[in-house]
Amino acid sequence: MIAHIVIWPILLPLITAIVLMFFWNNSRIQRVLSTVGHGLTFISSFWLAMRTFNGDILTLTPGNWPAPFGIIFVADALSGMLVLLASLSAFAVCVFSIVSIGKGRAGFGFFPILQLLLMGLNGSFLAGDIFNLYVWFEVIIISSFVLITLGSEKAQLEGAIKYVTMNLLASVIFLTGIAMLYGLLGSLNLADLSIKISESNDHGLINIAAVLLLVGFGIKSAIFPMYFWLPASYHTPPAAVSAIFGGLLTKVGVYAMIRVFSLLFIEDEFIRNMLIILAVCSMIIGALGAIVQQNMRKIFSFLIISHIGFMIGGLGLFTPLAILGMVFYLFHDIVAKTNAFLISGLIFKLRGSFRLENLGGLYNRYPFLSIMFALALFSLVGTPPLSGFWPKLFLLQASFADLNWWLIGGIVAASFLTLIAVVRIWLAAFWKKHPDYEAAKKRIVWYDLPRYQKIILLVPIAILTGASLFMGLNAAYIADVCELVYTQISQPQTYIDAVLTNQSNIP
């Protein structure tokens, strides 16, 4: 059945993780099998995404329990694209990990856990009921906690405690909101909840549940003022782990906000105004935090916070152009942030440090490599015609059309501050001379790597840079996908009909 392709992006990582368990002590086989598993997951995700880009909404009900009583997986254009980008990013991280992750971490289950993390991410994007979404969030938390602590270094453990504490708090708040909705409406299915909320008279209690969900998702998305755990933890694990964290984990919270606040709480003006206020604060605070950092990965961590604000601001406006810009920015940011953290890992191998004062001389020594890095880094700024330019343009147009001067000011200020942060990295790492190159050679591992391992490290960065270029140079196609996303989330009845009538389960 065609609908069975919905489950493959979840099932394939699970199968791969189980197979990898049988080769626990053989890291070489684990690296090969994990890469193959990620490749197969990407192929299945690509197939699923192509079906959803035709406007289809595919559903699958395991056990044949009809909605709203049973678990259901749903793939529309938004979830299809996010599953595709998650699988692409995870594949790139896995390839980078072939060289960058040592035998020690591989021997403690890095590659199986990476598969389980991807399973949790894809499960979150495809969940059709709100409790199932919570369960996938817990799979993500458990997997990411293991990944962030592998190696047991002091900085990792400190960052892991902050990370898991705040995420567990978010889960408790999220679960409380779910309990309130279930107690009021007697359902967990998102489509069924949409109907029952529109018919309910308990507006006060439903609004409280909406605020609880906003706080829970806000912590997971690291929006202001619930962001401090992110820059304290994302820079501590290896670059491959930071890459998948920075590219995808906060985006799950953003996706949950989009799904819940477009399907369940459609008319809530208080929530929308609150989202815009939080968005502007996140933009400014995150960008200000980035420009004062000296560690590359801390700079990128603060930029995650800032750029989450762009997406939340678009959701707050909820106009066609704003949603188009928000969704485009979400797609762009997954690729750009994953690539940025991978680049920081490669620069570490080239110069032996993440700190700006210890870097330099990369452009003179590696000019073609530096140009590829420049394309990736300046896409974060929104330099035309790179992928970050178009969603910012759409969001600015939407803000001007709505005369929302606070959001306009936030977008312009955050973009300018992001430019300063990225230029600082460029000047420090690529343009200036290395302060003490001869002494630094002792901690540089690049020269000790075989040629094939150097190529393996470059391949995922080239793939993600190519994906970012494709999104920028083919912005019209991406905008068409984003427009389809807006059509589907602004007309929830299509989603509701697909879920409750199970229309896509046709052989």
Could you explain how this protein is built, in words?
With 507 residues, the protein is mainly α. The protein has one domain (2-500). The chain contains 22 helices and two strands. It has helices at residues 8-21, 27-52, 77-100, 103-107, 110-126, 130-149, 154-185, 190-199, 203-221, 229-233, 239-263, 269-291, 296-317, 320-351, 362-365, 367-381, 389-402, 405-431, 437-440, 451-473, 475-490, 492-500, and strands at residues 58-60, 73-75. The chain has a two-stranded antiparallel sheet with strand order 1-2. Helix 1 (8-21) runs antiparallel to helix 2 (27-52) and helix 12 (269-291) runs antiparallel to helix 13 (296-317). It is globular and about 70 Å long. The chain starts with 7 loop residues before the first helix and ends in a 7-residue tail after the last helix. Residues 503-507 have low confidence and may be disordered.
Helix content: over 70%
Our Rg estimate from Cα atoms comes to 22 Å
Number of strands: 2
What count of domains describes the coordinates?
Answer: 1
Strand order of the largest sheet: 1-2
State the secondary-structure class. mainly alpha
Mean pLDDT reading: 89
* H/E element order: HHEEHHHHHHHHHHHHHHHHHHHH
Question: What is the first-to-last residue Cα distance?
Answer: 4 Å
Biggest sheet architecture = 2 strands, antiparallel
Cα shape: globular
Low-confidence stretches: 503-507
Number of helices in the DSSP assignment: 22
Strand content: under 5%
